[in-house]
Structures are given as structure tokens and as C-alpha cells.
Amino acid sequence: SSGLEAYLRTIAKLKSNIEDVNLENNPVAYDERQENQEEYVNVIVSSILRHLSPAGIVFLSGLIPSLKALFPEVFRSVVMDDDSVSDCDGNNGTTDGVEENCDNGNESDRDDSSVGNEPNENEERMVGDDSSTNYDDDNGNGNDCMGAGAYRNKLHYLFRQLLKAISEPSHSPIFFYVDDLQWADSASLTLLSSLVLESDHFNNADEEEARQCLFLVGSYRSNKEDYPEILNQFISEIDSVPSVRVTNISLGGIAKSGTNSMISDALRLPIRLIRNFSDVVHKKSAGNPLFVKIFMTSLVEDHYLTYSLEEQRWKWDIDNVRDISINENVAAILRNKLLRLPIKVFEALQVMSCFGVKVDQDVLSILSGSDQFDNLISSLGYAIQEGMIEKRNETTYGFAHDTIQQAVYEYLPEACMKEFHFKIGMQLVRALRGFVTPESLLCNSITFLAIDQMNRACDGTDPNRLDTRIKNTLASLNLKAAERAIDLADASSALSHVRYGLQFAGDTGWSLCYEICLRLHEAACLANYLNSSPDEVLKHFEEIINHARTFEDKIKANCIMIKSSASGNIQGAINSAFIILNQLGESFPSVATPEDIQNAIASIKEFHCDDPKEKIMNAPELTDTKKLWSLKLMDHIAPYLHMMSSNLLILISARMLKISFQHGFAPESASGFFCYSYSLISTFNDIEEGYRWAKLALVVLERFNAPSLSPKVKICITMFVSIWKEPVQSSVVNFLRLHQEALLVGDIDFAAVSSKGYIHHGFISGSSLATIERECAAISLEMMQSNQMHGLFWCMNHHAMIMALNGKQGRDPFAVYKNGSINNYHDALAYAETTGRRRLMRAIYSNRLVEAFFFGRYSEAMDMAEKYRNESEISMPIEHVLNSFLEGLTAFHLARSESCSRWMELGENSIHSFRSWAVHSAWNFDNKLFLLEAESYFCHGQYDKAEEKYQSAIESSRLHRFVHEEGLACELFGSFCKTRGKLSKHIELMARARDCYKKWEAYGLLEKDCFKNCDTSCDSIIPGLSIGNEKGDSPP
Asked: How far apart are CA 811 and CA 793, in angstroms?
């Protein structure tokens, strides 16, 4: 917060061109300043409105309070009064304060000896503990296994949008300098990685807009022993990304000539007089400027370097200087210097060193208020004079170098240093009085400092010297810190806090502080799940199962366990979920029979009414916790059932609706409406009824305003339902919007699904292949960086198909995958077959079908179509539509060349499908149906009807903006005319097809032999038809 505040203040001054002038004596300057400020505010307001929603501004301002103060006019311009409630201002927790849990007013050293005091019944709930189980995780902070990390993703996305709003590629790039990266924690490095690697230029056709606006300079020690593995991973990740230009600069010691100049300037003597002395200093300090300074200071203090009043210059004995030994990291010299300090000053430095290289003055003021740390700030004044520390601004003290901090911290034995941590921690815990809610505690930096100090003090030691109430307080604070770390997907920090929390809770924790212990083990399950440690998940899961008092207390752990087991055994996870649902009172058969399905659908029909929207909006809210958990669990396993059992998905969705109508609605009800909608369409081909239920899912979302669930449901509806009723081009636009919405709530998984939907629907709607190619490359990179391997492999293969069509103009689709084992279609297919990834296999078959068909390799196309069809009946609608279309056209071509009745049967099946679909959306399906019918008439020798259908297909494609299918219809019509001996019309149609493919930017298709003799371009060869996008040719 403080770093961003300083950064924003600098930006404000730079962008408003405020200069240091005497405004009282210069009214003209004052007027200019006002004009500049107004202009600046207008620029920033318009930029922020483009990149951030009001909710996003409020979210950031809750984390960075200075944002409101720095940009008051901007804040008032973009945020409505109703939005101005920070995420950190909630008051949903217990009102038990720290004051009730610490000593009753006695702040003496008896804290050290308060052993084994038993709490009374009214004191069991500790600071920040909300002992009631939270069943409503829709706020995104419930640490539900389905939403872990969403808080972090949301923060990262909003931070990137903020930087984008206050910067421009051309003249206002962002410059970050981060010193001492070796001390950075996991969360900070993850944020930096997000800023560097995730460019957020989705659908940015303008290359200038797509350019990064960030310049990051980070410094760290070259000795890898000094920094943790997480920094090594961060550096390797940044260095391995082709799109990020990295320059490594190694800073060694200064050259001997530099040391000569430095000492010459300090002693005010010419270089020729100090050269021998300087060479010795350079050798002993290895050219490190800090070491040079410390060594020179020690020479003065030990009288090896003295000032001669007689000669009025510095004097030294070169032989004595040579004989002095110096440790490589000058720790010995620093220790000697520290020992010369007054005891109070040295103790003040030790207190400072317990916090790291810097500490806020507010913290030191809190400590100065106790007898143990009196005169702390005044003692630091002497250390400033000695050059050991410095006051960096009005609020922060820092060591002059981290080497000094290390020397101070390591001086005392470990036991003594733990005593320092203990005393500091206890004083900070007392300072937390008044922060009465979990939210206010976690928004206060003192909380985390107190937790850190007490954890260090008790690490590896027996915490039983603490009062039981204090131990429970510290266990509760560690629990809150662990849950916040899980929100940020920082599993390592969460596990550390869980370990300390359980240590403070002790062996009697389950009996003395049951709620805290339960939630600590739940947090451990979730953190280990995020950390991909299934054995540890099982360990803490068993601890909960063995000690939980009620079935309800086991539900959350069971949900996490199901999620963990699904990564290796989806069917096992489904079976476990059904066992829990049965215990919740919702039983299901292991196999859904037709009778079960009919009964499920019949149970929903009784809830039909004339105005379902009004019924949903006015229905009661679900309050039964068991039913609510049932909804959550069914929502959780619905994607697994989509892959494994569509019949059970029908039963699940129908049950979700029945619970909602009978017991009350919840946000998860929207998922039930969608799943039921999808089942009606995919299983019963009831498009109208399925579409109606999908629209009702949106009504549920409207009622509950559930931002964490809304993008997921809307993306699913757009992906699986909208194509049957709405123009596919509108889905492309919706995917763009929903991609941003998903990022805004931190749902990167469904943001990736939206990205896939965008490029897939963009392809079938005839969007520019050059644009789709750029998006494929950008999305593949983002998926690689976020370790979304399923999406990455799908996107790489789709990218390869696009590259084939556009003549390989673009980036290597498989270069983004760092493993190097997948370099083409064949490698990807072998990988999918080996790992059993059937959805990836279907996607590869589909892409190869498209490529083979457009390049006229019809036998290969049919082979891919049959493999796709035989692999599974479950697929994305857009993929199914495209494959049915191309398979039908391929079948008719093979029927003409091979005279096989089987091919005609396949072609007629495609026509039957498109006739049924065209009833619901003429826009999406008419042109495809006309072209299939034309090919069918061609096969049956009904040439006049075929010609009529060809022209209808061309006209429908043009009117509905499918430029690629307009080109395909012209190409097939041209081939028909060539067969019929109409060569001039054939040439005209092939020229028209070529122009359409050019607009589609499918330059690879222009190399086909059928286009070699078409050298003329025409815009209106066929009477009444036009290939251009002339003004007025689009329907309203």
C-alpha cells in the first residue's frame, strides 16, 4: 500500500505537470496549474472508465486507502455512492476484541510465566474468530475449494488494469524498480510475475495497443545461497518467456580505478598520493563500495588512518593496513563497530532487526509505549548519526544495508533473539485492542507483524508458557492469516500459518478451541490441495473425520477431498460426492435408467407457470444449510458428470431445480437451470425449451447479483446454448465481455474457457484469420504461464489449423510449450492417446478435419470425421455443428467419386440435422443447409435445383456475414459449373471465392490448384449478388 501510494503520488505530479513555484506570488502559475490539474483528471477519468469498473476501483481503494486521497476527483467521477463500500469494511464477524483475550490491564513481564490457565466457557472464542460455520461463500472469501485463489486473481487483474489506465505505450510507460528481491515473499513475486507476463491485450488487433507498457528492474544478490527457491523459479519463468525481453546485468565490484577515485575524493588527496593505499583497500574490499566505506571507517576508529593537523592531510602506515585481516562479508568489522555502540542503541537496533531491513515508525511508537522498549526512537537517533540506519521518509526507518541488519540480528544467540521476538509480539498483540472484527484485523498491518513475531518466538519451542487465552488468540490469528493466504493462492504461507496455529492450539485444541482447530485443518486441506500434495490433504482430512462433532462439520473437508481426488480419479470423486449427497438427504441411483430420467423431468413440469421470472424473483431464499450444501456439491460435480454421464447430469440438474422451487433459491440455483437447459438440448434435442430454461438461469443471477458465479454460468450458456438461437457473431462479442468479467472476479479457469470460446466462435463466424492467429498465440502464452495445460494443448492445435489456412503467417503454434515433446499434430495426438485425454483427441480430429477438407484431402477428412464421431457423443455445440457440416460436404464429394451408398447416407444425415436446427436459427444454419442440399442435388443429377441452392447458399452467407462460407459456396459452385462445362462461370466463381478467402485472410487456400488460373478479381460477377461489405448489405 505504501509503495503504491508513493508511486501514484509521483504519477499524479508528473501527469499534471505541477512544478515547485510560489503560487501566492504567481497567480498566472496558479491558473496554469489548475488548468493542468483539470486536464489531468479528465484524462485519467476517461482512461480508468475504459479499463476498470466502479466495483474494481472500490476493491483497489479498499486495499490502498491512499487511492481516494490522491485522486478524489477521479474517484467521485467513476464511483457511484452505492458502490462506495470497501471490501474490507464488512462487519460480519464476532465482536469479541483482543482486549478480552489478553491480560486484564496488567502489562508486566508476567506474560512470560502465565502457564496453563484454563479458560472459562465464555472465553473460548478468540480474536477474529467467527465460530459459526460459513455456508455462504459467494463473497469469494469463504476459502471454498471451488474459489481458492479467486481473490488473488482478481487483485492481479485489477492491478494490471490500474497500471494500464494510468499509462500509455507511446509516451507514459510504467517503470518499477524493486530492490532486494531475495527477501520477497511468494505473494509479491507472483504479483510481479502477473504484471510482467500477463499483457491483457485480448482482442487487441492494434499492435501498438498490444505492446507492454511495463519496464521492471529488479536487483538481488548474485550468490544463490542467499535467496530462496521461489526467487529462482520467478527468474527462470520470466527468462523463459519469448515475449518478454530480459536483460541480465551482473554488477561486480567497482574497478581499481574507481576505488582510487572514491578514496581520493574522500581524503581530498590526489590519486598519485593514495594509489598504494587505495590498492590495498580495493583488494581487501573486493571493490564493494559498502565494504570500502566500512573498512575505511574502521581504519579511522582503530587509528590506522589519522588526520595530521600539522600536515593538514590524512596519514596512514601502509604496512599496518596490509596486515589487517578482513572477512569477505565484513561481518567481523561490523560486529566490532556494534560493540562500541551504547547498550541502549544496540538494543534498539536489535529490535529493528527483528522486523527485517526496515520498519514503520508507527510500530516503533507502539513498542516505545512499554517499559521494555522505552526511549526506543530516541536511541535510534544515535544510530542514524553513526550511519548504521537511515530515516528514509517521515514514517520509515531502515538499515543502511541489509548486511548491517544481518550482523545485528545474528549477534545474539537464538534463544535470546526468540525472547526479543516474544516481547515484541506480545506488545503488538496488546496494540490490536479495538479491532473487533476479522475484517478490520486483517486490514491492519500490525496484525501480521504480531503473528510473525509470535510465530518466530515460539518456533520449535514449547508454547505452554503462554496463557491459554493468548495461545487461542494466536491460533485464531494464524487461522485468519492462513485463510487470507489461501485467498491469494499462496499455499506455502498458508501452510506455515496452519503449522503455527496448530502448534498454539496444542494437543488439547480439539476440546478447548474446537472451531479454530476445525478450520485450521480445513485450511490445511485446501492449502495442500493447491500445493498438489494429495497425501497431506488426506492426512488432515482424516484428522477432521476423526474429531468433527457433526456431519455438517465434515462437509467442507469432504468437498476439498473430492476436488483433490478428481485430478486422478474423476469417477471416484463422483462416487464420493453421491455418498455425501445421500447423507445430506439427496439420494441418486448409480446408473440413471430411462424411467429415472422421465420421473426427474416430470417432477420439474409441476413448477411450470405463466410468469416464471416473477416466481423466481419473489421466491424465498434458501436457508436450510443441508440443502444449500447439496446445491453447492451438485454444482461442483456437474462438470464431471458432463464428461462421464449425461444421464446423471439430468437427474442432478432436475434435483437442483426441485430444491430451489420447494425450499428456496440460492446463487447456485442458476447452475441448476443451465445444466437442465443443456440436458434438454443435448439429450432430447428440445432447443426451444432448453433455451427458455437458460434464460431463467440469467434471471436467478440477476436476482442474487452473484459476481463470482455469474461469469461461469453466462460463459456456459454462451458456449452450449446460444448458438442454437442467436447469431454466432454475437457470441464472439459476448465472449470478449465475459472474459473480462471472469478476470474481474478472479476466475481464470473460466476466463480461459471464454478465450477458447472466442477463438472457436470467431473461426466459425468468419472472423479474420490474422486476428484469430494473434489471439491464439496470446492465449496459448497466457495458458502456459498459468499452467492450464488442457487449454494450452487445445489452443496450440487450433492455432496450428489456423496457421495452415493462412499460409503459415504467424508464430510457431507449438513453440510456446517448453517441454519440447509436442511439436506438431502427430505429437499432440500421441500425447492425448497416451494420457487418455479424449476431449483433446476430439479437438485434434476436428481441427485436422477442417484442414483436410479445405485443402481438398477428402479421404483424410472423412477419416478424421469418423474418428471424431466414434470417440464420444459429448462435444461442444460449435464443434459439433462445424464437423457435421464438413462431414456432410465430404460425404457428398466421396459419393460422386466412389458411388457408395454409405456416403450418401452420411450426407443426408447432415441435411436432416441442419433442417432441424435451421428452424430455430435461420441466421446460423440456412447457408449451410442450402450448400448441403446443393451438393445432394448435384449427386442425384438434379442440376437445376443444385444451381438454385448454390446461389441461395452464397446469398445467405453474404447476408449473414459468413465470408469464409461464402467463399466455400462459390468454390463448390465453381467446381459444379466446371463439371457441367460452364467454364466462364467457373472462372468467375473461383475468382469470387478467391476474393472471399482473401478477406478471410486464408492465404494458404489461395495456393490450391483450382485458383491458379483465376487472375481477375470481381466484386459482382453474379447478377444480384455482391461479395463486398457494401453499405446497407447487413440486415437490421
From this structure: 15
**Cα 121–Cα 124–Cα 125 angle in degrees, nearest 5:** 130
List, in sequence order, every residue forming a beta bridge with 881; answer none if it has no partner: none
Half-sphere exposure of 286 (CA within 13 A, CB side): 9
Residue 875 near residue 921, CB atoms below 8 Å: no
Neighbouring CB atoms inside 10 A of 414's CB total 10
Of 150-164, 613-627, 859-873, the poorest mean pLDDT is in 150-164
Residue 701 neighbours by CB under 8 Å, 6+ apart: 667, 670, 709, 710, 713, 714
Query: What 3-state class would DSSP assign to 721?
Result: coil
Instruction: Specify the DSSP element, H or E, that contains 216.
Output: strand 214-218
* Rg, the chain, Cα only: 35
CB 849 within 8 A of CB 865: yes
Q: Considering the entire predicted model, what is its pTM?
A: 0.71
C-alpha cell at 86: 470497501
> Residue 342's CB: how many other CB atoms inside 10 A?
11
Closest CA to 928 of 916, 939, 943: 916
Distance CA(484)–CA(523), nearest Å, equals 10
The total number of residues shown for the chain amounts to: 1036
pLDDT tens-digit map of 384-427? 887 788 887 777 888 887 778 888 888 878 888 888 888 898 88
Q: What angle do CA 78, 81, 84 make, to 5 degrees?
A: 80
Residue 987 to residue 966: CA distance in whole angstroms = 16
C-alpha cell at 1022: 453474379
pLDDT tens per residue, range 124-138? 332 333 333 332 333
Where does residue 569 fall: left (phi above 0), alpha (psi -120 to 50 degrees), or beta otherwise? beta
The answer to whether 642 touches 874, Cβ cutoff 8 Å, is yes
Beta carbons of 647 and 603 less than 8 angstroms apart: no
Dihedral sign, Cα of residue 316, residue 318, residue 324, residue 325: positive
Interatomic CA distance for residues 265 and 279, integer angstroms: 15
Query: How far is the C-alpha of 576 from the C-alpha of 570, rounded, in Å?
Result: 10
Cβ neighbours of residue 150 closer than 8 Å, sequence gap 6 or more: 140, 487, 708, 745, 746, 747
9 pLDDT exceeds 50?
no
Contact (Cβ atoms closer than 8 angstroms) between residue 560 and residue 534: no
In 3D space, the residue among 643, 715, 655, 724 whose CA is nearest the CA of residue 685 turns out to be 724
